Each structure stands twice: as C-alpha cells, then as structure tokens.
Amino acid sequence: MKRKVGVRFKAVGKIYDFECGAFVLEKGSTVIVETEHGLGFGIVVTIPVAYEKDTVGPPLKKVCRTASEEDFRQRDKDIALEEESYYFCNEKIRELGLEMNLFSVESTFNSSKLTFFFTAEGRVDFRELVKILVKQYRIRIEMRQVGIRNQAKMAGGLGKCGREICCSSYLSKFEPVSIRMAKSQGLALNPTKISGLCGRLMCCLTFENDTYLDLKKRAPKIGKTVLVEGKEGKVARHNVICNRIAVRFEDGTEIEKRVDEVEIC
Predict the structure, then answer these.
(1) How many helical (H) and strand (E) elements, i.e. helices and strands, does the chain have?
(2) Within 10 A of 108 (CB to CB), how many other CB atoms are there?
(3) Using an 8 Å Cβ cutoff, are 198 and 152 in contact?
(4) Which of 44, 51, 143, 252 has the fewest other C-beta atoms within 10 Å?
(5) Is the separation of the CB atoms in 139 and 114 below 8 Å?
(6) Where in the chain is the domain with CATH 2.30.30.140?
(7) What is the Rg, in whole angstroms, of the alpha carbon atoms belonging to the chain?
C-alpha cells in the first residue's frame, strides 16, 4: 500500500498531499517534491499515512528527496532573487506610471519562474512591464492580481488584539464573514472596530459565531414579554456569554437577570 504525506510551501499556505514512497519523514522535514511548475521546496506538516489509490482523481505527485545543503543554498538564491526583483519591478512601475500596488514576489525552486503579486482598483495593462522583466531576468514572468484579503495574508501584520493577524499566522483558507455575525455577537457596527487590516470584516468574527447562536436559542428574543419577580417586562438586551438578559419595565427601569430566573409569558 502506498503512503502519502502533507507538505506546505508557505508558512500558512494550503497543504498538498504527495506520495512519499519509502522516505522516512517527520513533521518539519524539508523535502523536494514534484509540482506542476517543476521541483518545489516544501516542509512536511503531516506524517506519512497509508492510502489507497483513487481511481477517479489524478495520481499524487511524488517526493523526490529530502532537502540537501545544496537545495538550501539554492533556496537562499531564490529568496535573494525575489528581493532584488521586487525593488526592480517597483521602480519600473513608477517609471511607467502604472496604478498597481506590488506587494510580493515569489520564485519557483531553481529560479525558473517569477510571480509578481499585486492589487489594483481595476484592470491594469502591464504588457510593457512584463517585457522589461523578461529582458532583465530571462525567465518566465507571471503577473497575478489578487484581492485585498490575500494581500494581508501574504504581507502579515498585527491585528487589533495585538497578535499577528489570523490569516497570516495559521488560517489556510478564508471563511465567509458577514455583518450578521457582528450583530449576533452584540458588537458595535462601527467599520473601524470590526474590520481587519485588509479593510474587510475580521475573520475572527466566525470563531465564536456558532457559540453565540447556540446560546441565544436558550434566551427569549429581544422584545419578548417576560415575567420577573411578578412583574411583566420586555427583553431589552442579551448578555449571552454570562447567560443573562436585561428586562425593561413600563416605568423605564431595567433589571438584569439570569435566563433561568425569568418566565416567558
């Protein structure tokens, strides 16, 4: 039976499965693998496990070898090329007057291709820029326009919590986030408070959303008439984390009680 192993090419990138053959690999092992664009330098993130060949999907590509000192030196050359080409491309963008924001450059292993990642408001005619880059580096050049969330993930930074933003520290993919999640958690609908570095709704709104929805099911809805200590009032607010609700009476006074201390009328 064949064995497969999970490999990442970026710190928090997608995990890809590769057939590892007889290689003895552990988490953190560096390997050279076959990819659609040639050889790739990756890090093992899941230990080898046995699997049965899928008759529907394409066969897994293979782990070629564990990374050698020469492979590490080549990777250092790739990183140096990425840095040098980033500054060169930015200089040419200014000279050509292109309205685009270049924020990252990635090189394939063995420096056979450079991919330039950028954001822009609309479509950008970068044909002249590509000609300059091809003439300068004599390798394949790809210009890739991505969304603002992807820029934040690749560039990194600190969030409002003071920690590294979730998308660049451990999230491997983006989950849908909606303003309804902020409402269900009782957050102030102030864009500056519920938006991340990317300017979009914070990914962390999804983390506790299911918990809030579950706790709210146990409490009477806002506006519902309830009986508290023999007096009728209406639910004004929820404090679901503490399992409490605020009840407002007809005279304008309010009282906060646990959910099990009130009776729904």
Answers:
(1) 7, 13
(2) 20
(3) yes
(4) 252
(5) yes
(6) 218-264
(7) 27
The amino acid at residue 46 is T
Tally the C-alpha atoms within 13 A of residue 235's C-alpha that lie toward its C-beta. Answer: 23
> For strand 244-248 and strand 254-258, is the pairing parallel, antiparallel, or unpaired?
antiparallel
Fill in the DSSP letter of residue 123: -
State in words which class domain 73-146 has: alpha beta
Residue 194, burial from CB neighbour count under 10 angstroms (0-12, 13-18, 19+): buried
- Residue 134's nearest CA partner among 98, 92, 74, 95 is 92
Pull the structure tokens for residue 212. 């809030």
What the block records as the tokens of 197 is: 């570095």
* pLDDT tens-place values along the chain, 265 residues long: 788 888 988 876 778 889 888 888 889 899 999 888 778 899 998 888 888 776 556 788 889 899 999 999 999 999 999 999 999 999 999 999 999 999 889 888 888 889 999 998 888 899 999 999 999 999 999 999 988 888 888 777 888 888 888 888 877 778 888 888 888 888 888 888 888 888 888 888 888 888 888 888 888 888 788 887 778 878 888 888 888 888 888 887 888 888 877 777 7
State the angle between helix axes of 127-137 and 69-96 in degrees (0 to 180), rounded to the nearest 10: 140
